[in-house]
Structures
1.
Amino acid sequence: MHFDRSRSADTVTQEITMRCVDADGETVVLEATLGYDAADPYAVTATFRTEICEVVWTFARDLLTRGLTDPTGEGDVHVWPCLDANGRAVVIIELCSPDGELLVQAPTTEITKFVNRTLARVPVGTESTRIDVDELIDQLLAV
């Protein structure tokens, strides 16, 4: 596990080894980076690295937080707690797009560490204080 402390104090990154689960239940290692930036306080990113490319998914931090204890999600992202084949606690993240689906499992302890670090930066319920509505409107009108 690696924490990137070179970036802003309002940014959290964490390297994590996940396991990609195929349709037969077989798993392969998939290296990923979880990211959070307080400037976009409702979102987290998961960057999956393969030999060919990196794929970045952005989804609600709340999905990752709630998915630690209960099945959650609608649409393209679903998260739920589970046990792996060896009985270890994992979090399952299912990502769906028109191009395909990805089902990964990550150790619950690692996801919990990441979520707790994001909550230390921006506690639940304070996200809206990080958003400058006037600036957002200016950006929308400038387009």
Note: The chain has one domain: 11-142.
2.
Amino acid sequence: MKKYTFLLLIFLVNISFSVVAQKFKYGYINADKILQEMPDIAEANKKLEAYIKPINEYILAKNKEYQKKMKEFNADKDKLSDFLRKEKENELTKMQVDLKQFQLNAQKEINQKKAMLYQKAIDKLKKAINEVARENDYRFIIDNSEGVLLYFEAQDNVEPLVKKKLGIK
């Protein structure tokens, strides 16, 4: 009888551990890797390259123009009057500043375009993660490429408890 009681006790302990383990099921993925493997991202990258190409060509042309004018200035600066030399120096400085500002603005614009093009794939990935989590009873899914929590059960939010502890309403 003791033997059966002991086996029953072990069986119950195992069941309780498995129930607890199922309750707190965690998962992880590398979202960056998955995104790079998605056909949507390959298409977005093609569109982004096509968008960037004329911008880069413009920057190269402006840089070439600046280099040409700089070379001409350096060759002629000893022959110029102080007034003309200062004027050409100001012109070159303005060209350089304008080119750098254009590059900064272009980079900002490219980043916005990239975000817009990637959004469809990102939304698709988020939806797939949520579906996998629900279908497989995961409570949390973490992106191990960035350490970001991608999926969580709303019931696991302890924010109200922390606010209460801090006296925040």
Note: The first helix runs from residue 2 to 23.
3.
Amino acid sequence: MAQSQPDPQHRPLRERLPAYAVHALTASGTAFALLSLIAAFQGDAAEAFFWLGVALVADGLDGPLARKIGIAERVPAINGETLDLVVDFTTYVFVPAAILISSGLAPFPLLVFLGCVIVASAAVYFADTRMKTEDNWFAGFPAVWNLVIFYLLIFPLPPIVMAVLVVVTAIAQAFPVVFVHPIRVKAFRPLTITMLVVWAIAACAAIFEDLDPGLITRTALLVTLVYFVGLGVLRRPKHTD
């Protein structure tokens, strides 16, 4: 008779520790988000985005590590997907909305209204089970409000234009359009990874230049933005129910 498998809840600690470490890495994003929020309240948007950048690095590392060690089998009691959603909503949506409100880019009541639009619409998007296509593209605008606010601070717009852009982008979370996942989408992956590296270097430069970068950095940010948005425009979205 086949020998029964040990209960995953009773694995030796040495087998569970790597999984706990990866969960701790994921959860650290909330701590970086809090540091970002403090910086925003102190009026330092560049430092706020520095901490969000650190959180973004942690977010990029935890997924591959989790898949490599088989985290769900080692610690089944902790749902990594739920933890990841909590951290992503905090770092991609909630804190960026707070940064926008503290930015002074428009009259305060308008910024508060736009912040509310961002967090409320993104909450619905995060609960939508159709946010990914079968081939790993994002369906609808993927609620990366950290990037939207980052660009708005570097390329400020008149308040009414900014308001329209934010509202349209919020609605676009439900649009039948797609946006590339720069890591998981196989099409054009080598070029996409290259553009991602270029964007990361330009974003770091912009942060260290206090969100007032020179022409080369601004050009790199705009070119990469056009590339990533353009991929979704050129790809015909697949029908999803």
Note: The mean pLDDT is 87.
